[in-house]
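Severity: low
Component: inverse-folding endpoint
Summary: output formatting inconsistent between runs
Steps to reproduce: submit the following structure tokens with default settings.
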């Protein structure tokens, strides 16, 4: 029987030692995305290979059950899911890491298969390109991912679920010798109609976000990044529906997963490239930057219960991309482009 892993736990544990979506955006990361990845022990080359998987790298399901596919693979790494919200019908982004027994990440061409139970016919393979978490050095905060971290890339697959309910997941990585290793997990998929979080195609809620003005000039009240960013100039409610906006809910210092720092750095890097075409807003998560005081009003109005979340909204106020959890640089940029 397939072995389940706890969603997020292994991924987050590794990320903490090193330093929690759905989307319609499924572009394959560019091969030059690995330029900032450290070359030690062949990591750079492995990440490069992992960034361009093809369906041909993996066996077709051909009516085989998930268990039958798993039986043909060597037991290998653990599956560490880095996103938690999945919906049906439509594609859902599944972000994850593959972790070896010694706690180090595994990089190679990777894909995902899913089925309601291990005994059911599998759907897939859904290719999962690796996407790096490293921004250019000048955009890195104290909480950033760095070239010395073991986890420098995250896998992301756009998975189509036929219906809502529980699903078993089989992620497989192709080794250098052509053999496959498998890792398993379980997730819950909800119906789109039951998902309270605004999705792609929905009109974005007109929420007020914190600004430097509302904080009376004290940026420490509205930004836990070190150093603080300059993405607090405008209130989302004042610009939504008037120009494109990238709204990121994250808390670099207090994030339970420690991926908020790198993701916030990515937004700052995107602002430097697209800031003349789009407003970039960073919204902190907790009232008074205190976890015990609960979520700030904008998160409650978006019905969010985890972080980080990125929403890209076009000039008409319509959400064009929604990403949860760990996001790679190319995935972030592709999301931004949907709103332009």
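Observed output (run 2 of 3):
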């Amino acid at each position: 029987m397939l072995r389940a892993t706890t969603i997020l736990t292994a991924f987050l544990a590794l990320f903490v030692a090193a330093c929690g979506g759905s989307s319609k955006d499924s572009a394959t990361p560019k091969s030059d995305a690995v330029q900032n990845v450290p070359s030690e022990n062949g990591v750079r080359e492995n990440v490069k290979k992992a960034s361009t998987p093809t369906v041909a790298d993996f066996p077709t399901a051909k009516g085989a059950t998930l268990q039958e596919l798993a039986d043909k693979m060597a037991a290998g790494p653990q599956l560490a899911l880095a996103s938690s919200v999945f919906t049906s019908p439509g594609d859902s982004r599944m972000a994850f890491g593959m972790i070896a027994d010694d706690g180090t990440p595994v990089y190679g061409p990777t894909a995902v298969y899913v089925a309601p139970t291990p005994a059911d016919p599998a759907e897939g393979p859904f290719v999962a390109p690796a996407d790096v978490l490293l921004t250019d050095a000048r955009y890195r905060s104290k909480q950033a991912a760095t070239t010395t971290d073991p986890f420098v890339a995250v896998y992301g697959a756009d998975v189509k679920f036929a219906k809502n309910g529980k699903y078993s997941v089989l992620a497989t990585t192709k080794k250098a010798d052509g053999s496959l290793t498998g890792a398993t997990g379980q997730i819950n998929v909800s119906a789109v109609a039951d998902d309270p979080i605004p999705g792609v195609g929905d009109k974005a809620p007109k929420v007020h976000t914190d600004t430097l003005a509302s904080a009376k000039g004290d940026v420490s009240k509205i930004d836990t990044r070190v150093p603080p960013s300059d993405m607090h100039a405008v209130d989302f409610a004042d610009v939504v529906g008037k120009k494109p906006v990238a709204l990121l809910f994250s808390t670099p210092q207090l994030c339970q997963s420690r991926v908020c720092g790198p993701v916030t750095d990515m937004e700052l890097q995107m602002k430097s490239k697209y800031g003349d075409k789009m407003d970039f807003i960073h919204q902190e998560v907790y009232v008074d930057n205190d976890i015990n005081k609960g979520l700030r009003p904008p998160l409650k109005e978006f019905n969010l219960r985890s972080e980080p979340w990125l929403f890209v909204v076009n000039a008409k106020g319509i959400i064009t991309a929604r990403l949860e959890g760990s996001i790679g640089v190319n995935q972030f940029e592709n999301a931004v482009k949907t709103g332009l």
